[in-house]
Every structure is written in C-alpha cells, then in structure tokens.
Amino acid sequence: MRKENSTNAMNEQFLFGICELNSAVSMISGRWKSQIVYSVSEGNNRFHLLKKELPNISEQVLGRQLKELETHKIIVKKEIPGTVPAGIEYVLTNKGEDLIPILKNLCEWGKVYAEGKKISAFNFI
C-alpha cells in the first residue's frame, strides 16, 4: 500500500489528471487481468474454471485480481441460485463488455509489434 503523499502517489495522480488513458491502463494492468476478463467473457466465469484456464496463476493472485476487477466495476460477483454451498460466478459489467473489443485490438497489435516475444498465451482471437 502506497502512502498518499509519496512521490509515486503524486506522480500517479498527476498522470491520471492529464490523460484518462493512464487511468484506464491502471485498471487493467497486472499480469493476469486482461486474460481473466477475456476468460470470463468466454464463459469461464467461476473461480475453479478460471484456475483451470490459467493453471500458472496462484489462487491467492487470482482472488486478488478478481477483487481488483470488481473494485473497478469491470466484473461483478453473482450468487448462483439453488446451489449448496452458495456458488459464485463472475459476470462482466457493461464496462467489462466494452473492454473486450479493445483487448482484441491490443492482441492484434501485439501480434504485429511484439518483436519476437512469445504471445501464444493470449487466446483472444
């Protein structure tokens, strides 16, 4: 957790103030978030399905990333009626749905400009 009056926090606030792109990138930054969002859009909308889809992510990191995506209102948690114990699924909000074509475009851009970096782990298209 960063101190509010630290140089990093002040720089972040400055950047967020001059361009909304900085805020947007901050919401989806992190190693796993974009893949989680895309996986949820493809129907991998429960914790165990996401873990199966992304086997290299730890449960702790997956939980934290899901919570951050919830905080930014990109996904919401919904209880599945009639399940015992109560089942939870993740659903994209309108904000999350609007993000999918952007992620697909970024994936295409990465395929062209990734300069030899292996990007096959991203299965957006």
TrEMBL record:
The keyword Flavoprotein does not apply. Keywords: DNA-binding, Transcription, Transcription regulation. The keyword DNA-binding applies. InterPro entries: HTH_HxlR (IPR002577), WH-like_DNA-bd_sf (IPR036388), WH_DNA-bd_sf (IPR036390). Pfam families: HxlR. GO terms for molecular function: DNA binding. This is Putative transcriptional regulator.
